């Protein structure tokens, strides 16, 4: 008998009592109903390379759109890249060139077969409703797909200039001036960050002026102008990416906080575009959607999307669903920018949340937190796998102490998972 078992036995017993099996999509209905009337439903993942996390989130997304009127999906991706998908699902363009649209490493996060299937479903849903067009005050309009991350500084500037020039907007000159400030750094965020942080060669004033002008412009625009929304969000990316890269070279937690605050602001601006009653589904890693205050992130002064949304909108309007696995395979890389591999995910370490879920029954299951569950109110190690991963060393850096009932509102456990199916032309290396 493992020496950890007496310590975790009450947790395992509570999981057995409160969890329910997942034998098919219909079993997810209990999570959809538990979300109530939340405005934001946050769907996590324990890795960016696990097929079931994507497919189960797709099933939940379908139910939330069809039954509860959710209006758009916001993902941990670049706004310009995701606009190709957004236009496609709304019937405004043909099929995206996925590999061209998502060409920033790690490309597999959104250029994969699972996301293609989601996009096809969204297009079919909108088409069946007659491709209603842009958002409108009456609540009609198509379900959309948006990226809310902060990394696309140069691409966002280019998209802003392209839109302003195509509409003959006077703000185009402001945008060109801002973009020219970044040009000497040759699309290298670290180069810009060093120049800005240590030599005071910043472009902050230029992008802040541009964002202010575009906010004023969109405030006066007709509701439903996706072009104006895109220009404003891309300008917001430029402002926050400038701050992100400047902070990143200094180290510390501030760059993380800038990124997650940006994602919340972008999300809220898109929600406002859809109207005061709009509901949003967010797809991001567990480390972003699970409340940071329930982890050791809080000790380091870090905040995240889940925490910020709960603080700004109240817990009843935010419903966070964590995802995890006991073992399986995953797509990841050994170093940043390295070739992808299909790697083996080892069994959850003894005493971890993943281990407890396994001991409660070696099958897929879910649990909704709430009520009298004191066993879930103390910290327990909970696995997080990034795009860079070393399975043989995961026990030393891939487990985050978490109070599960405070971090999430529900949790989905897949006993044995499979690697995501990327669209990259180069096949993944064999499993290790």
TrEMBL record:
KW Methyltransferase (keyword) present: yes
A family per Pfam: Erythro_esteras
Domain of life: Bacteria
Keywords associated with the record: Methyltransferase, Transferase
GO BP field: methylation; response to antibiotic
InterPro entries reported in the protein's UniProt record: Emycin_Estase (IPR007815), Hydrolase/PRTase-associated (IPR052036), UCP036794_erythomycin (IPR014622)
Entries under PANTHER family matching the protein: ESTERASE, PUTATIVE (AFU_ORTHOLOGUE AFUA_1G05850)-RELATED (PTHR31299:SF0)
Protein name: Protein-L-isoaspartate O-methyltransferase
Lineage: Bacteria, Bacillati, Bacillota, Bacilli, Bacillales
